[in-house]
Specification:
alpha/beta, Nucleotidyltransferase, domain 5, DNA polymerase, domain 1, 16 helices, 47% helix
Length: 390
């Protein structure tokens, strides 16, 4: 196993990889103590045989923690339009490169997304694909490794490298299946979110929308928004987890009680001790004050919760039957086509629904709309459920 520790060796590997149609990529990172992921290891492989003693093998480890190693050759490879960059469950890996280098590898292929399209279930795990496609097993003994510690053992290196060596077989099999079924376009549509840099940026002003709450009170939402914005900006600037500032349950409590001074903060049941004084306390009180000063016409409004929609329960049940029939006919996991919330929204008359766009509309959305509008009904034909014109 070759571990690359110099820029020259990385450049040499990337030059070899650029001669191939694809390269498989994975990363190991830590995020427990920081806001942004700390990149600890990069695994790369291109088609070909692995050298018995490292040498010019087709699979390597790259150690980004080595002082003086410049990842520029890798980023150049990531920009090469002639080489497909293959990941599994790519989102967290891509976030690292977007933050580190303002770069999203392209063209991009995510085997988890492709596996879902090819009938492997809602979220096909890498281990499952290795077993079912590559006909191999993964040694899971190094799964909980602290990847920032050095030196890495041979077992840890083998575990890490397996994340890209088996991926070659998986990618080639899935790519062939997509070509056979004509569903490559489906995967391309799913890649649009991963290819969008905005996917990996958290705007502090929008952070409140990620907090689960049942209250729709404008004053509560205003305080929640300002507090969440302060927490996100504070965490980003200091590269600490947002939970280290204060957790979601404390955020909701603060938005409800809206403390006016440090004495009020001291009464909080959920606020961490360090957050009751100093910069965090000042930030909390300033955020609450900003919310209180907002005029009525600038108060934020929460979206209407799905459980308050006027859902037609009979229609929702029919949509679930239709979804099951269509997912079985297409060999695609139902939740990949439409979520339960999507079905309830359709049954409540909503039309800004994910299932009504792109390939989902073709395989389910058009028939779902026809069912909602009374243009078709459902009928049983043997073991199958089909739509019939009305």
């Amino acid at each position: 196993m070759q571990t690359i520790t110099t820029t020259e060796d990385l450049a040499a590997f990337c030059q070899r990889a650029a001669k191939h149609p694809y390269v498989t990529v994975d990363t190991e990172f830590l995020r427990e103590r920081t806001y942004y992921s700390k990149l600890c290891l990069i695994q790369l492989a291109h088609p070909g045989e692995d050298g018995p003693d490292g040498g010019e093998g087709s699979a390597v480890l790259v150690d980004p923690l080595v002082e003086g190693l410049d990842l520029a050759p890798l980023y150049d490879l990531f920009r090469d339009p002639g080489v497909v960059k293959v990941f599994h469950a790519a989102r967290q890996d891509l976030e690292i490169f977007q933050v580190e280098a303002d770069l999203i590898p392209a063209p991009l292929f995510d085997t988890q997304v492709a596996a879902m399209v090819c009938g492997f279930g809602e979220q096909a795990g890498y281990e499952t694909l290795v077993r079912k496609i590559a006909r191999a097993e993964i040694d899971k003994s190094s799964r909980f490794t602290d990847w920032s510690r050095r030196p890495l053992s041979e077992a840890q290196k083998s575990y890490a490298l397996a994340d890209v060596t088996h991926l070659r077989v998986i990618y080639e099999w899935l790519a062939a299946q997509l070509k056979k079924t004509g569903r490559a376009r489906w995967v391309a549509e799913e890649m649009a979110v991963l290819n969008d840099p905005a996917t990996y940026r958290v705007d502090p002003a929008q952070a409140w929308q990620r907090v689960k709450t049942r209250s729709n009170s404008p004053k509560f939402i205003a305080a929640l928004r300002e507090l969440a914005q302060f927490r996100e900006a504070y965490a980003q600037e200091r590269d600490v987890p947002r939970s280290r500032v204060f957790k979601d349950d404390a955020l909701v409590e603060l938005a409800s009680t809206r403390p006016a001074n440090e004495k009020d903060l001291g009464r909080s049941r959920l606020l961490l001790r360090d957050a009751r004084k100093g910069e965090i306390a000042e930030g909390i009180l300033a955020a609450v004050d900003r919310a209180a000063r907002l005029p009525a016409d600038r108060m934020p409004r929460a979206e209407k919760p799905r459980d308050q929609l006027q859902v037609n329960p009979a229609l929702a049940d029919l949509l679930r039957v239709l979804l099951k029939a269509r997912s079985e006919a297409e060999g695609v996991a139902p939740k990949l086509i439409a979520s339960s919330a999507d079905l309830d929204a359709l049954a409540a008359g909503e039309r800004e629904v994910h299932a009504l766009y792109g390939w989902r509309r073709e395989v389910f959305g058009e028939q779902a709309l026809a069912l909602c509008e009374g243009r078709v009904g459902l009928a049983a034909r043997g073991a199958q459920v089909v739509t019939v014109d009305l």
